[in-house]
Amino acid sequence: MDFLIFKAPMLMVQASLDGILLGILFALIAYGMALQWGVMNIINIAQGDLVILGGYIAYTMYLVGIHPAWGVIVSPIIMYFVGVLLYKLVINKVVDRDLFISILATFGIAIVFQQLMNFIFGADVVVAQSEYGTTMLFDNSVTLPNSKIFSACISVLYAVALVIYMKKSRLGRAIRATAQNARAAKILGVDTEKVYAATFGINAALCGIAGALISITLTLHPYVGLPYTVRSFMIVIVAGLGNLPAVALSGMGLGLFEEFADYILGTEFRIGAVFMLLVFILVYRRFKLSKKREYLK
Amino acid sequence: MSKIKQKDLILYSGLIIFGLAAPYLFSAFKVQLTYLCVLIVLAMTWNLQGGEMGYNTFGNILFYGLGMYLTASVQVGMFFPLAEWTESGGEKTFVHTTAQYFQGIGVGLLVSAIVPAVVAGAIGYAILGLRGHYFAICTLGLGIAAGEIAGGIEIIGAGQGFTTPPFPAEIVDTEARGKFFYFLSFALLISTFVFVKYIYGSRFKLILNAIRDNEDKAEAMGIQTMKYKITGWMCSAFFCGLAGGIMGGLIGYIDSTDVAFDGREMGVFMVLMAILGGKGTLWGPVIGATLFHLFKEGLWTLILGWQYVALGVLIVVIVIYFPEGLMGWLREKYPERFGEVIDEKDRKAQVELK
């Protein structure tokens, strides 16, 4: 095969490092998705659009003159309230319903978000300059933007903090109890309505962090939310709900896949490859599961 | 019984006469009427899939886009080299004669009906094994992946789009193009309606409903569910492909993600129309599509720029507050009209239970 990437081993190192750093970021979004899926049993198509909105918050700070890296603190706070508001307006009406209803309803929310962001921030591709410079490795043959390393570190930091919070705090315990059995939790005095609102808020806050990091490492555009939703959905399917190490690993795996697909197939097929991978994973899962259902034959 | 039949006859013949006369009565709205026919076809075929079979798909846009590209490619490829046509400005060097144009579109539509159906059959075994929301997300991914991939293929115009053959210049009548596409789509609408109505009277519909209500039980009853699921999907794909082919000719320009595999618009519209009218009913999608189209055309220009916000809000409102749609609401209100007998005692007992 005469692909460039197989001729130059350094490109392979480059793609691997890029992929892993990117994958950690995806894992953060996927963790939010797993949280709300596990607790509230809804699939949020607007997940990616929440990410992009969080990114635009950081970008606005950059425009005002504040360093966009502060977005990782400001953006989740704003996004938490956006999430709670969204829950109060729409999500609380779909929690106990058919999953398809939640998919369609959040699809509608996604369209509204995209369009509003298009109005407010314009349809241009934007990026917030962090001016962190780059790190050169292996005799200058591998370039690594420091912003990517920064984003991976922040993601890990937040993920660890969240895990500890979920384990130790009162709200974290209430969330876990509701995920296990909402009815029993209700009987034992947990205000599940509040727990749901907080869960969705935390999910939105995670999206806000990821968005702020994306604004300095990648690019923002009002209509690129859906690929992030699909990526996080994919990671959650592969890793399962509530298994954090697996989420991190499959996130990195997805990042690697994307970078290599980028080099081998070409950039124009990158998003297509992500969606095809989703189809393949689901189909593979279906055949694997159907082996267990022998009575089908 | 015969009285109802007579009523139906009057209704159908009235609608057909209206449909045939419409382009002359509202000659300024021919394109809109063509759109309406295509939308109704899409809603009805989606309903066959999502409403009757219970497999909520976002992926029928795949067949629609496939049909669009196939019709245009065949129409060009039969007479001229396709690669040169799709190069920038290539469509100006080659000109279809009248006979070539109609031959091309005829063969193209034939291909665009058969190939999507075959594709649906080929991928059906893998995809239709998924259940519920996994199926929904998978088909969503499939539709978007198709758009992204089509946008990278050079021979069908890649990112810069594909201009479909212009209507032959030898026909002087300026109304001819609009009429041609209108009657084409109207014929498609009638054949789809007849087909779906035939299904509604058949055992096939009952099997699809059994799959929707409880697939495992249907299997236990000895129904080979996979066979029927694939057949159902192939029927949808057949008509979606045709609708796409007609739309491609009407719009005159194919873009991979904005026109053909337009999951963000058409792909959602068909779901929305079927739900608005009422899933799992014969007339629901027809009414839903008509209302939706009226709403869209009436409001779109008034709220310029905000139409997608309105669309998103509309989706949320419909899905949350009217998941049963218009027909479902009517059915709840006037159950006798739908031939349902309500046991008053039983109903009261149920209310008390709640």
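qc> The beta strands of chain B are 162-163, 253-254.
qc> done
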